[in-house]
Specification:
The complex is a heterodimer. Chain A is an all-beta fold. Chain A is built from no helices and eleven strands. Chain B is built from no helices and eleven strands. In chain B, the strands form two sheets. In chain B, strands 2, 4, 5, 6, 9, 10 and 11 form a seven-stranded mixed β-sheet that branches. The chains are: A mainly beta, B mainly beta.
Amino acid sequence: QKEVEQDPGPLSVPEGAIVSLNCTYSNSAFQYFMWYRQYSRKGPELLMYTYSSGNKEDGRFTAQVDKSSKYISLFIRDSQPSDSATYLCAMSVEGNQFYFGTGTSLTVIP
Amino acid sequence: DAGVTQSPTHLIKTRGQHVTLRCSPISGHKSVSWYQQVLGQGPQFIFQYYEKEERGRGNFPDRFSARQFPNYSSELNVNALLLGDSALYLCASSRLPSSEQFFGPGTRLTVL
């Protein structure tokens, strides 16, 4: 079983839609969680960083962590064509070794 | 402020050769992590260094080694290259090992 599971998609939505991206994990000791956006052939760009459980909002992005279900989510409101990219979740026990999901490919159609 | 920089951008090597990849962290960041990303997959953790000490090592063979210098820049070395080492090698820097990690653009290594 992989440490982190992420549906690869692809996910296609119309412009302005709310996008929900999810990851599940098996290690209950994970307590650091991050979401990245990666455009083709570029380095990942950090979107959200959370510690332990709860919600965090930054502009159009909201990250949720449900440790009881071992499930994290990223919501994108008012999605734009420029949001078309691959979204990666990452998590760690102590903040040193991060485990990444395989990424979800998102296309926002104008 | 400059972001994380990596060199070279692209590299082509043949099997059995050795390669050195370089990374300069964001100013003020003392921790550097290295990841390997194969096409279609998420990054895989290779090493983390903090204050020149190794803080973590992923499941990679001993052909992979790294070090961090007093100015916090870092090198990743790979010996006896295999075709399967072809990937995007990413460097991420953070203030502390558990802080947010910011990635560089990566070095794309092709092994022929």
